[in-house]
Write a structure and sequence with these properties.
By secondary structure, the protein is mainly beta. It is 3% helix and 43% strand. It has 1 helix and 10 strands. A 6-stranded antiparallel sheet has the order 1-2-3-10-5-8, with no helix packed on it.
Length: 131
C-alpha cells in the first residue's frame, strides 16, 4: 500500500515548479502502478499550451475556474470544480486559469518526475528523456 500526504511532499523532489504552475507528484513511474498521479496548481491569469504526444492525460478540477481549448477544433470548454477532461487523442490544447486552478492529473504512461515541457508543449517519450 502506498500512502502519501501532499503537505509532506512540499519542498521535496516530488514537487516540480514552472513559471506559473507547480505540481506535486504523488505517484510516479517508479511506484509501478502503470500511471502517475499529480496535484497541479495553475496561477490565476496564466495560459498554458500543451500537447502530450507520448502520454494520455486525464484531469479533474478540484478548485478554481478556467477554460480548456482544443486547438484543432477551436472549441472551448469551461473548467470548474467537478469537471473532468481526458486528452484521449494527444490533443494540443490551451489551458487558461481564470482563477487559481487546482487539478488532479493522471498520466499514462506514468511520468518519472524528471520531465520538463519541451518547446512544443510535450514531454519526451518515457524511453528517451534526453530530448
Amino acid at each position: 500500500m502506498i500512502v502519501r500526504d501532499t503537505t509532506q511532499l512540499h519542498g521535496t523532489e516530488k514537487q516540480v515548479f514552472n513559471e506559473r504552475w507547480h505540481s506535486t507528484r504523488l505517484l510516479l513511474a517508479s511506484d509501478g502502478m502503470g500511471f502517475s498521479f499529480h496535484i497541479t496548481v495553475l496561477e490565476a491569469g496564466s495560459e498554458h499550451v500543451f500537447e502530450y504526444k507520448h502520454h494520455f492525460e486525464s484531469v479533474y478540477c478540484i478548485r478554481g475556474e478556467g477554460t480548456i481549448e482544443d486547438l484543432k477544433t477551436n472549441k472551448v470548454y469551461p473548467i470548474r470544480p467537478g469537471v473532468m477532461y481526458a486528452l484521449d487523442q494527444h490533443d494540443r490544447h490551451r489551458l487558461s486559469a481564470h482563477s487559481e486552478l487546482e487539478m488532479a492529473c493522471c498520466f499514462n504512461p506514468p511520468v518519472t518526475g524528471t520531465e520538463i515541457h519541451r518547446e512544443d508543449g510535450s514531454y519526451a517519450p518515457a524511453s528517451d528523456l534526453s530530448t
